[in-house]
Write a structure and sequence with these properties.
Length: about 290
């Protein structure tokens, strides 16, 4: 084989190897492109997944926001219910307080809360006992309170009446300011008790009645005589009370109460000094003057 043929074969071989190398390069480039395409595809899928993930997260956050909003709405509704309930409870408490204040005002407006005693019965051991028990309770509750007694009584037992009279004087000595008054009438022993107060008053239409002491006496002559002497001594006590608290003299009293009831009007009582003032006057009475 000639030299030229050898060289020609070598060139062909080199050319073939070159072509094979180019083919291999093209294959490598194609594979590279394929790999890059796969990578691009994977990146695109990843982006799609990321987008879907972001959408899911957004939907989740939106759902959470809606749940939170509903929860806040429910809390606000519950809060409104609680506020309404508290308002109702407050109104109920206010009503209870108003009722309690009204009850206190009613209790405070009662006579016993204002140390006012109405003696509207006969003078007897029972009526005197009830009066003394009430006044003793007031004295213990408030040792310096002002006390008022209004008599509307036909009188009664002289001895029981004197017991109450002394009790009232003891209250005065202990510092109580005692006011006595009468509405209707203060007759017999009640008229004596009217004189027990620091201040004495009579209603415009009320009457004071004075008469001699009366006891029932029976038995032996000396027993009746002793009873009469005792009555006379009691009458002296009554006369002493009236003369010390009024402008009346014993002579005038004896002249007017002998064998009769001496009824004294409000105007007469004020003139005689048996009372210090007249209350409950008609307004028209003042205007007419």
């Amino acid at each position: 084989m000639s030299e030229e043929n050898k060289q020609s074969k070598e060139e062909e071989k080199v050319t073939l190897q070159l072509k094979e190398a180019q083919v291999q390069k093209l294959k490598a480039e194609a594979k590279k492109l394929e790999i890059e395409a796969k990578i691009l595809s994977n990146n695109q899928q990843k982006q799609e997944i990321d987008i879907k993930k972001a959408q899911i997260l957004f939907q989740k956050e939106e759902l959470n926001f809606k749940v939170l909003a509903e929860k806040e709405k429910l809390n606000l509704k519950n809060l409104k219910v609680l506020l309404k309930k508290e308002k109702i409870n407050l109104e109920l408490k206010q009503l209870d307080l108003e009722n309690e204040l009204e009850s206190i005002e009613i209790r405070n407006s009662r006579d016993d809360r204002n140390y006012l005693y109405r003696f509207n019965e006969k003078v007897s051991s029972e009526s005197v006992r009830r009066c003394m028990e009430t006044l003793t309770e007031w004295h213990r509750l408030d040792p310096e309170c002002d006390i008022e007694i209004i008599f509307s009584s036909p009188g009664g037992s002289i001895i029981d009446g004197f017991e109450l009279f002394d009790f009232l004087q003891d209250l005065r000595y202990q510092g109580h300011h005692l006011t006595t008054g009468t509405l209707g009438y203060a007759a017999s022993m009640a008229g004596v008790l009217l004189q027990a107060g620091d201040v004495r008053w009579v209603g415009q239409q009320a009457w004071v009645m004075i008469h001699r002491a009366a006891f029932g006496a029976w038995g032996k002559t000396y027993e009746i005589e002793d009873e009469v002497k005792f009555i006379q001594r009691i009458e002296e006590r009554i006369l002493g009370i009236f003369t010390s608290r009024s402008k009346l003299t014993k002579t005038k009293i004896k002249r007017n109460w002998d064998r009769k009831d001496w009824w004294i009007s409000a105007d007469e009582a004020i003139d005689m000094g048996l009372v210090d003032e007249i209350r409950a006057k008609l307004p028209e009475h003042f205007s007419s003057k």
